[in-house]
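Re: the request from the purification team.
They wanted to know what the chain is likely to look like in 3D before they choose a buffer screen. I agreed to run a prediction and write the result into the notebook, where they can find it.
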Amino acid sequence: MRVERAQQILSKFPGLRILVAGDLMLDEFVWGEVSRSSPEAPVPVVEVTGESFFAGGAANVARNLREFGARVSMAGVRGQDAAGERLAALLGESEIDDAAVVASGACSTIVKTRVIARHQQVVRIDREQRRRIQPELEREVLARLEAQEDGWDAVIFSDYAKGFLTPALVEGLCRLAQGRIITVDPSPLNPLAWRGVTAVKPNLREARAAAGLLPQAGAEEAAARLLEIWDTQMVLITLGEHGMLLLERGGRPYHTPTRAREVFDVSGAGDTAIAVFTLALAAGAAPAEAAELANHASGVAVGKLGTATVKPEELVESVARMGR
């Protein structure tokens, strides 16, 4: 991709209206130094130097969209707790519309705490309850979404299999978003029927599992099988250090090799990829162009520590440096 074409596509991102529906989380980073081992157990002692909080899970997709100037709405559920209040404040600071985020006393806000020392993740602590949301919450979320359905250019489902995306909620939202771009970042732990959406973006392990294939099956075979199972227009399979594979219905497989220079942390790279891929499609880019931009964006993301977002100038610089 030529850098001029990338800039042309990116110039259309500001003002696009994107809805992100999925599992909301609060990402906590505990930063510290390690100078000794614990006398109590064979583990490092981390001397804490600071803490950072970010909107995570599906909200990290929204954060990436905001970096490119898109107008973003969130649909999800959070707890009526301190973590939920902090998450709501972070969404507000990022100017992400949370009118379709329901605060429920029946659940706790998911918190993922990562302890970082010497630029490496020492441990991750998950505080979560995996349970399907109640039918009354489904109805409330859909009612709130129905009030804003005219304001979307595209919808992204970001599934972490924590219980928010149920068959009824997905079916209802797809009905509201009919005729618009709908993309999915799926979870193998929540096998939903994604029939009729624009694109689904699993990684290779997830693609093999969803297609019912053996672990050694190739990406092209998995993509072809999933096109039929999901009845979607295209499948984009992320291949880690091998880049991405795009298969469109009736088209030939398109492989784009990795654009990462070095890998520090893969946290959130999939969120970055689905955000940029969806924005590019909504901006009128060809699917192969959207895959190229998503691949460049995830290559930038893995070069950062933590669930970092990617800036437009970083994406353009990556295309200029390694563009085809």
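For the purification team: The longest helix spans residues 287-301.
Please add any questions underneath this entry.
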